[in-house]
Amino acid sequence: MSSQDRDVESGEAAAESAGSSTARLAAAVLDEEARRQIEQAERDKAVLFPDDLLPGVGDEPMTLREAMAVGGKTTVVMMFLLNFIDDLPRAVRVIGPDIQNSLDISDTVLAGVLGFGGVALVLGAVPMAALADRVTRVAIIPVASLFWAATMALSGFIVNAFQLFWTNAATGFGQAYRIPVSNSLISDRYPIQARARVFAFEALGRPLGQLLGPLAIGLIVAIAGGEEGWRWAFYIMAIPPVLVGLASLAMKEPPRGKNEQIAVLEDDAIDVEELEASMSTALARLRKVRTFYFLATGVGVLGFALIAVPGQFNLMLEDKYGLDALDRGIVESLLWIPALIGIPVAGRVFDRKFREDPEAVVKLTGSLIIAAGFVYLVALPIKDRVLLIAGVGLAQALISAAFVAAPTIIALVSPYRIRAQAFALLPVFIFLMGGFVGGLIAGQISDAYNNRTAMIILAPYAAMLGGWLIRRGAGHIRRDVSLVVEELLEEQSEARRIASGEAVPVLQVRNLDYSYGPVQVLFDVEIEVAKGEVLALLGTNGAGKSTLLRAVSGLGIPDRGVVRLNGRTITYAEAETRFRVGIVQLRGGEGIFPELSIGDNLRAALLGKEMEPEEAARRIAKAIETFPVLNGRLGELAGDLSGGQQQMLALAMALIHEPEVLLIDELSLGLAPVVVQELLEVVSDLKAQGQTMIIVEQSLNVALAFADRAVFMEKGVVRFEGPAQELAERDDLARAVFLGGEGG
């Protein structure tokens, strides 16, 4: 064999060996990822408490009458009336063809204009919910109702599609309060074991409004007569919200989370001070509640059917069957008769199912919506008018029955502090995911083909897919309810601790889990930091140290757990709010603005702070005094400083806020020993002044120089917590601390 042949053969062998190694590595990576996904799925479904500790599960049945005896009749009757009149304006789709002819607009324009009222309702629901989580909820109702009535009346004066767009949007915004406010009031007013029945009673207002609204509007238009008779529908339909809004002044505000607290704690409501929850943090936390995530996503997909069918159905009644406004109103009313029967039955069934098996409630909810999809698939192609109306009515009844369970599920799996915002997100998914976009798509298909084709293409498959998504969340409900129970028990423990006179730590982290997408990185982390204490956070790369700081400072929202500052719950407060009350984080690396001068960096650190110039000057002078190396150099570019000096400037910019708790990520990263020594002297001075600090550190020796206590983390779990010197004496842990690399 020639040397060339041997080289070729050797090369082929090497390539084969390399390919084999790559294949083994790829297989190992895939196996590890599969194992991680299995473990994560098991954690997602892990139940923290047995069924007998879950609120409502296994309880004695309670009738609607008994529930009203406990919570009173006023709230549920008012919510019923609000639900009833809330659906009256939506019946204007009966006069959609009349408006279309009067304003000379296409199907697509009409669908977009009317559909945007739903978008406005959604856009208003989220801030209304945030408001409802902060102020007295019953005070919102009369103000919003009067606004809604005024904009409804203005719709009667419009002369073009543009004006209708804005009045319809304003009416939707005025109605935005109803879902978050009414659902949260009912959840706090009535016992858990009868909630589905109460929600069913309240929900009856919707089909009743849909039953009487079209008839009333059709009758109004028929009596008014003429091409402009539709305007009187808007004038007259503006009266009910005024009356109900004024009557709502008799309502009283219930304590938040009262029923969950009584069910779990068997005691009166506890009171732990908290910072207000922001919309962004509430959404981030709710996205991690798996039952809620699948429910909201499924309802969003269902929105394609919920919006596409009613509008296109009325257009088809005029185009294909030649029905006028009154006739269409009668048909629209008939469609809701099955729902009037199905909703009360659903309330009783869901209450019983939840007492027996919470998972079955979610599965039944999804199954009802899937069944509605199949009914749409069979009924919509039918040409016979009677059978068509019966089929569409049955489908709507199945969806209405399923929606009785939705607020019950949300009330159970969402933390009560952000419950109103959880309720508000359901219409967000309905109208933004499916409703508005679905209405436009339906209009386009209708313009290109016909109304029936648009409904057949969208409604059946949207309902079936939406129901399937909701069923997927069933396996998570026990864990999600368990997490709510855990939070309540932790609050009770904290309330008792405060009542006993025991010293409250400056910072508390309890039962904290944290994930990046599907990958969980922190597991049941608990730490406490006392006033004036310096805590060193140690661990190997990827241990979760920096992630823990993110959860404390609000830069990331945990999946589970509680964060408190001086006894105040800040779990759902955004980073800016936490910063204002005293949690300041100095991140590792680039903590300055290199293109600005040193003085401008210090002044920039105070931007957004409302303080007198004298106070700002005092703080800057104090920062310079702490770091003499900066004295006399305020005009120099910050980028010209050495690495150690830049770290000192960054620390000065953090200290200028006089923080309650100072978080420092990687104090000594990449710095020379002499610079580290200078920083340690500053930390020691701050410690002597009583500054509370948590410092992520990569060096055990450095940590021992300043820390009162140390926490060692490994793979997202706290392996050790205690005096720093004791950690140094633990050879197994001390060897594991990474000396000189980047922290995790």
Sequence-ordered SSE layout with sheet pairings:
Blueprint (H helix, E strand, L loop, with lengths): L2 H43 L18 H8 L2 H14 L8 H8 L3 H26 L7 H15 L6 H14 L3 H12 L5 H9 L1 H20 L6 H7 L1 H9 L10 H8 L13 H9 L2 H30 L5 H11 L1 H20 L1 H22 L5 H29 L5 H30 L2 H22 L4 H23 L7 E10 L2 E11 L4 E6 L5 H9 L6 E6 L2 E2 L5 H6 L2 E4 L11 H7 L8 H14 L16 H13 L5 E5 L7 H16 L3 E5 L3 H7 L2 E6 L2 E7 H5 L2 H4 L10
Parallel strand pairs: 3-8, 3-9, 6-7, 7-8
Antiparallel strand pairs: 1-2, 1-4, 4-5, 9-10
Helix pairs in contact: 3-8, 3-9, 3-10, 3-12, 5-7, 5-8, 5-20, 6-7, 6-11, 6-12, 8-20, 9-17, 9-19, 10-11, 10-16, 13-22, 15-20, 15-21, 17-18, 17-19, 18-19, 18-21, 20-21
Tell me what you see in this structure:
The chain is α/β, with parallel strands linked by helices and 744 residues long. It is 63% helix and 8% strand. A hairpin with a 2-residue loop joins strand 1 (507-516) and strand 2 (519-529). Helix 3 packs antiparallel against helix 8 and helix 10 (205-224) packs antiparallel against helix 16.
Mean pLDDT score: 82
What is the CA-CA span between the terminal residues? 55 Å
As a percent range, the share of strand residues is: 5-15%
Helix content: 55-70%
Oligomer: single chain
Rg over CA atoms, rounded to whole Å, is 31 Å
**Helix run count:** 31
Main sheet strand line-up: 6-7-8-3-9-10
Quick recap of the structure?
With 744 residues, the protein is an alpha/beta fold. The protein is built from 31 helices and ten strands.
Note the main attributes of this structure.
alpha/beta; six-stranded mixed sheet; 744 residues; 63% helix
